[in-house]
Specification:
This protein has about 725 residues and is an alpha/beta fold. About 35% of the residues lie in helices and about 20% in strands. The relative contact order is 0.08.
Length: about 725
């Protein structure tokens, strides 16, 4: 028998399947999905790999065929279906098969859930053994025996944790008092407590219709479009409850780690130990344990960000993608997969249902639902018919002209004062962390910019330094301009840190929390901040996108959106869509319980159509206007589009490569090619970035042509410069 092995490497040059003969003694151990050790390269060199196929014969001459050396695990780490998914991802995302397989499992090592345990030997009287060790010299042995008297077993892991002596255990084993054997590990994952557990409530007619649609035989992806506060989570819970009773399982994806604790608490309240969550702030061992429990059927609902889509649940019945519009579902690191696409193809393979839940669908999701490619179910009302928030749009240019120069408008200050006096809570949203946006010289215009990245440093007041938010480099704050020598160095713009300082000055009695990347570096910091705010241990929560979506705080009556203009002018495809989604989401945090919510949106563009559509809750009008604009410009969803980005340390070589990509793409039939041009962030971590866009009507043909161009150019330019295709959506 021949095993087809893919090496465990990220090298694209080794991304091909190698044939190895299976020795007779390993015939019963080698199966699809097992990890193996194989000879590779030089005489004594070896490599690890995965068995992705089995065949009876090989095209490799028998004298050149090498044998598998060993099987590294007691059982396959991938199922045949997961190997199929890895092949699909390789083709879809222009990655290697090995990288795709690495995505599907959380870690490659320490897979065994067995450990050594020590028991009392047969025929030994434990009481007599304990009494015979009254001597102080036998104290350590006595402690071990007393532990056995309590628990009946002592594991190898417990010895260090409880202070029991390993040498005493070894002595007792040599004396025949104890015996050892391998047992299943008793492991658990410590989830933070603190959220109020929710209980089930009677479904509204709209909610019941949504549950019926989810459980129907219609296998199209279902767009579940519900206004903020309409009770989408309760629909998920009810549908999953039915599926669990049918022996099926479910995955629930969330876009942010910050959303996991609150959602997990609601699911745990309903389903108990059948639920587990997984995310990147957990240890590798904790994530591995979730995977193992899921594969074994001990866990039947897995909640987490995008990587949770790979949870190996048997009998999968449903994948829910909550906040399905969110760009966080797209990985920005190679391979740049989209968890929503993976969920869709996985549901098709497993004959499961895909639900895309959101209050603000993407333009493409809206288009596909209206065209019938997706099913569509809507929740048009908040629970209890609670009113959506009133939105006041404040023209900050008028505020400035009238002599009001604070970062908070008079309307927002008045509303904050009223909310705090009424013992209610306030959310303040600013999509920028740090103290000031940038540091500049008012004489010559110099801006302090990271020399590794083409972005301005951000000033952080607490650390008293300048930080690059892309590579993490920090430098001291300049006292004089390094260009002209002027002392007129000033801080411009505001970040969440500065907002916090100003709020403390204006409302000294208010209890304030801040949530951004600077305050959530520790493992459980997300949970601690959100839990404290949910328990009303703080009056005001200041934050970035982390606080804008998904959270349900009953006493938040006021939302303040500071500097909305920063969302409006990113200058990229989809930027207006993302601005509308974010504004709508953060506005929707207000007044979810009693319906007396208010959102104050501060902007210098009060009549911008995105601001007006969000303020007036006119989602349909926004989507129709956006679709009309895209159709006129022939942008997705009316065409297929790809951005081919070249990156490297030498900008001239990067430009040369992206220009060559443009020339090759222009030879393709039916393609329109735009560029080349520098990326919006021209340089990140010493890597220059240039891009070219290609458009075509046939997506499969476009992908095929891009793949051929990448293959040819990477062979011509070598490994010093890299091409990466990025599909919008």
């Amino acid at each position: 028998m021949i095993a087809q092995v893919i090496l465990d490497t990220s090298s694209s040059q080794l991304d091909r399947i190698f044939d190895y003969e299976i020795p007779f003694l390993l015939l019963s151990d080698v199966a699809l999905g097992v990890r193996v050790q194989v000879p590779f390269g030089n005489k004594n060199a070896t490599a690890k790999g995965y068995v992705v196929g089995l065949r009876e014969e090989s095209d490799v001459p028998e004298e050149k065929l090498k044998q598998i050396q060993s099987v590294l695990d007691g059982a396959p780490v991938f199922s045949p279906e997961e190997i199929w998914l890895a092949h699909w991802m390789k083709e879809r995302y222009f990655t290697t098969l090995s990288r795709a397989l690495q995505l599907i499992t959380p870690t490659k090592e320490n897979r065994q859930r067995r450990e050594k345990a020590f028991f009392l030997a047969e025929g030994i009287d434990l009481d007599e053994a304990i009494q015979g060790r009254e001597n102080p010299k036998s104290r350590r042995q006595r402690e071990v025996l007393l532990a056995l008297q309590t628990k009946g077993v002592v594991t190898r892991k417990e010895l260090g944790a409880t202070g029991l002596s390993l040498s005493a255990v070894e002595t007792l084993t040599k004396q025949g008092i104890l015996v050892s054997r391998m047992v299943e590990k008793e492991e658990s994952i410590a989830y933070e407590a603190g959220w109020e557990k929710a209980t089930a409530h009677a479904l509204t007619k709209e909610q019941q219709a949504a549950v019926t649609a989810i459980l129907s035989e219609d296998r199209r992806p279902l767009l579940f479009w519900g206004v903020t506060g309409s009770g989408k989570t309760e629909v998920y819970l009810s549908a999953i409850e039915t599926l669990l009773s049918q022996g099926k399982t479910a995955i629930v994806l969330v876009p942010e780690i910050a959303l996991t604790p609150q959602l997990f608490s609601r699911f745990e309240a309903r389903f108990g130990a059948l639920v587990a969550c997984t995310h990147s702030r957990m240890t590798k061992q904790e994530r591995l344990l979730v995977w193992q429990k899921a594969a074994a059927g001990e866990v039947r609902v897995v909640i987490g960000p995008r990587s949770a889509v790979f949870a190996p649940l048997p009998q999968l019945g449903l994948i829910v993608v909550d906040e399905a519009h969110d760009q966080s579902y797209r990985s920005e690191q190679a391979p740049r997969y989209d968890a929503r696409e993976v969920a869709q193809v996985w549901c098709q393979k497993k004959k499961a249902k895909l639900v895309l839940g959101t209050a603000t669908p993407s333009v493409e999701q809206y288009f596909l639902a209206k065209g019938g490619d997706y099913g569509l179910v809507e929740l048009s009302k908040r629970i209890g018919n609670v009113a959506v928030p009133r939105v006041d749009v404040v023209d900050m240019a008028e505020e400035l002209a009238s002599g009001h120069t604070l970062m908070f408008s008079r309307r927002l200050l008045y509303a904050m004062d009223r909310a705090l006096k009424a013992n209610k809570q306030v959310l303040l949203f600013l999509n920028r962390r740090g103290f000031s946006a940038f540091v500049s010289c008012r004489k010559c215009g110099y801006v302090a910019t990271c020399d590794h990245c083409s972005v301005a440093y951000t000033y952080h007041g607490k650390e008293q330094n300048l930080q690059c938010h892309y590579c993490g480099k920090t430098v001291p704050v300049p006292t004089v301009c390094p260009v002209c020598g002027s002392k007129y160095i000033r801080f411009f713009g505001s970040g969440t840190e500065k907002v916090e300082a100003e709020v403390r000055r204006l409302f000294p009695k208010a209890r304030i929390l801040r949530m951004d990347k600077d305050t959530t570096t520790k493992k459980n910091s997300y949970h601690q901040i959100l839990s404290a705010f949910a328990k009303k241990e703080a009056d005001i929560l200041i934050g970035t996108q982390m606080i804008a979506k998904g959270h349900d705080f009953a006493d938040v009556v006021l939302v303040g959106v500071l500097a909305a203009d920063g969302l409006l002018f990113e200058g990229e495809l989809g930027s207006t869509e993302r601005a509308f989604q974010l504004l709508t989401q953060v506005i929707g945090r207000a007044g979810r319980k009693e319906g007396n919510g208010l959102a104050v949106v501060q902007t210098y563009q009060p009549r911008h159509y995105v601001v007006q559509a969000a303020a007036k809750h006119q989602a349909e009008a926004f989507y129709e206007a956006e679709l009309a604009a895209r159709q006129m410009m022939d942008y997705p969803p009316f065409c297929a589009m790809v951005c081919v980005m070249a990156t490297g340390e030498v900008e001239e070589r990067v430009q040369e490569m992206v220009t060559a990509a443009k020339e090759k793409l222009e030879q393709g039939a039916g393609l329109e090619v735009l560029g080349p041009s520098p990326a919006r962030l021209r340089k990140i971590q010493n890597q220059y970035r240039w891009q070219v866009f290609a458009k075509g009507k046939d997506e499969e043909a476009l992908r095929s042509q891009v793949k051929e161009v990448l293959k040819e150019l990477q062979g011509r330019f070598g490994g010093g410069v890299h091409l990466q295709p990025i599909f919008p959506g």
